[in-house]
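Summary for the steering committee. One of the milestones for this cycle was to obtain a three-dimensional model of the protein with adenosine-5'-triphosphate bound, which we needed before selecting residues for the alanine scan. The sequence and ligand used are listed below.
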Amino acid sequence: MSDGFKMHQLALERVPFAIVITNPHIEDNPIVFVNSAFTRLTGYSPEVSVGRNCRFLQGKDTDPESVEKIRAGLKEKGEFAVELLNYKADGTPFRNRLFVSPLLDTEGELQYFIGLQRALGDGSSDQVTGGIDEALREIHHRVKNHLSMVVGMIRMQARSQNPTSLDNYTALARRIETLQFLYHEMTGSMQTGADDDIALSAYVSRIASAIAYLDGRESLQLNLDLGPMRAPVDTAARVGLLVSELLTNAYQHAFDGLAEGLIEVHLHGSDGMIDLVVEDNGLGLPADSAWPDRGNLGGKIVRSLVTGLNARLSIRDTGRGTRIEIRIPADVTLLDQAEPA
Ligand SMILES: Nc1ncnc2c1ncn2[C@@H]1O[C@H](COP(=O)(O)OP(=O)(O)OP(=O)(O)O)[C@@H](O)[C@H]1O
Ligand SMILES: [Mg+2]
C-alpha cells in the first residue's frame, strides 16, 4: 500500500460507500440496485431509483464536461473517477465523487457497471480525492470478484423474470449488503496497516446481527460463538457470504409455525483451518432434500462458494432442525480473546 493512503486515512473513514449498480444491457443503462448508503446520501429510495438512468441526480448547474466524461468513460467500458454536481431528492446540491468500474462475467464480458459515490460537500473541489480514489480502488478490486459472482448468479436466476422486479431486487440487496460490510471492514484494516487480512469474527458478527435484526422475531434466539481471528480478504468474503446464506435459510425456513427457536453460529480457527457451523433447532430440511444440490439460488451460491474455498460441507442429523458444518482450509491468524477481533 502506498503512503498516499495513510495520509488520507481520516478522510477515507468517512466514505459512506454509496453503491449503485446499472445494467448497460437494458435500454438507457438503468439503475438495477442502490444500497442503503445511497438512499441516506441522496434521499432517493430504491423504489424511486431503480429503472432510471443515473442522470436523474443531475440538475441545472451540473457541469456538462463532467457529464461528457462519464459518457465517454462508460463507452470505454473501463474504470474512471469523476466529480460532478448532483442534487438530492430535496433539491440540495452536493459535489459527488463518483468512481465507476465495469463488472465482468467469467468470460470477461461486461455485465454491469458499479458506481461508488461519496459526497464531498457543497463547496469547491477538495484536495483529498486523489487518495480516496486510490484507496477506494484498492478496496473495490478486492471485493469486485465476489460482487461479480453474486450479481452473475442472480442474473442467471432472473433471466426469465423482469430484471428490475422486486423479488429479484431483494435477493440482490441482501447479498450485496453482506459484501458491503466487507468494504467497511477493509477500511478499518487499512487504517491499522493490515491490508491483506481482516477481522473475520468481527465481520461475521456484523453480518449475523444484520440478518437477525432484519428478521426481527424476538422468539428466535441467536447465539454467536466466534473465535477471534483474522483471515485473508478473499477467504473472509466467501465465509461471509456462506454465513449469510445459511443463516438466512434458518430464519426463513426453519421455524414456520413454531413458537420459538434457537440458531447458533460457531466459527473457530485452528492450524490452517476454519470450522463454520450453522445450526437451528427448527423443522429440518425437507425429507427428500439433497441441499445444497438441487437447491434454489441460495443452494447454488453455497455450492459455488464451497468449491471456490476447497471446503467440505456436511449436514448432520441432530434429530431436530438442521446442522450444517463447513471445514475450510485457510491461512488464519488466531487472536487472543483479549485482543480486539
Ligand atoms: N435451515 C433450514 N431449515 C429448513 N429448511 C431449509 C433450511 N435451509 C434450507 N431449507 C430448505 O431448502 C430449500 C432451498 O434453500 P436455498 O437456500 O437453496 O433456496 P431458498 O432459500 O428457497 O431461496 P434463496 O435463493 O433465496 O436462498 C428451502 O426453500 C427450504 O425448503
Ligand atoms: Mg436460501
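Key point for the committee: The chain has ten helices and 13 strands.
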